[in-house]
Amino acid sequence: NTHRVPRRDAEAGFLKSQRFLRKVLLPASDAASSLWYQLLTTLNPQIMEAVAKTTTKWVIDPVHSELTFKVKHMMITNVKGEFKDFSIQADGNDLLKSTFAVTIDASSINTNSEQRDAHLRSPDFLDVENHKEISFHSTSFKLKSDDEYELRGMLNIKGIIKEVALKVEFGGISKDPWGSEKAGFSMSGIINRKDWGLNWNAALETGGVLVSDEVKIAGEFQFIKQS
């Protein structure tokens, strides 16, 4: 008779092996070359993948990154703004196969006008008192042509979650003069603010509205590899 291990017991054993790797093997300076490490990761590809995700991550370099947006004002000019405080993290050694988690401090919105910024933070728009963060979690990252990718994910604004598709250009990977490995991306996309309940507007005497529904978003992101 063949004895089969119940699925629940097998999953528990796998999780236990992950905890063992993180707590016992990985802190050691020679963990990567240890016999046990090599045996476990060779015999179980799932463990090898889990180790890569728990030991390597990419985080945003805020000094060399920006997240901006543009909207039409009075139907005639673009007004630019930015979020001053945001973070992006990607887990895994290969950044192009990672998932991206973005967290934005909604109150950090800045359009170089205190009065306008206060209005944007109010319940007419972002309602930052009740919705302190804007978040994005990627669901796919696909190569379209050369170094151009399509990034899809779920954007959460004011508790309303909808899928968005963004264009991403991969700038490459390089090392800075201090030996840190860095990667660069440029991002662009268009969303309709009303999809997230940002409905406020005012009619103009000459026709049209004060603020466009369409919002153009863009970003320049530099990531730092951390192991």
Question: What topology emerges from the helices and strands here?
Answer:
Blueprint: H1 7-25, H2 35-43, H3 45-55, E1 57-60, E2 66-73, E3 77-83, E4 86-91, E5 100-105, E6 109-110, H4 114-121, E7 133-145, E8 148-157, E9 160-175, E10 181-192, E11 211-226
Helix pairs in contact: 1-3, 2-3
Structure in words:
With 227 residues, this protein is of the alpha+beta class. It has helices at 7-25, 35-43, 45-55, 114-121, and strands spanning 57-60, 66-73, 77-83, 86-91, 100-105, 109-110, 133-145, 148-157, 160-175, 181-192, 211-226. The chain has an eight-stranded antiparallel barrel with strand order 1-4-5-7-8-9-10-11. Helix 1 crosses helix 3 and helix 2 packs across helix 3 (45-55).
Radius of gyration: 23 Å
Strand tally is 11
Number of helices: 4
Enumerate the strands of the largest sheet in spatial order, edge to edge or round the barrel.
Answer: 1-4-5-7-8-9-10-11
Flag low-confidence runs.
24-33
Largest sheet properties: 8 strands, antiparallel, barrel
Helix content: 10-25%
Strand content: 35-45%
Order of helices and strands: HHHEEEEEEHEEEEE
Secondary-structure-based class equals alpha+beta
- The quaternary structure here is single chain
Distance between the termini: 46 Å
Summary of the model, kept short:
With 227 residues, this protein is α+β, with helices and mostly antiparallel strands. It has helices spanning 7-25, 35-43, 45-55, 114-121, and strands spanning 57-60, 66-73, 77-83, 86-91, 100-105, 109-110, 133-145, 148-157, 160-175, 181-192, 211-226.
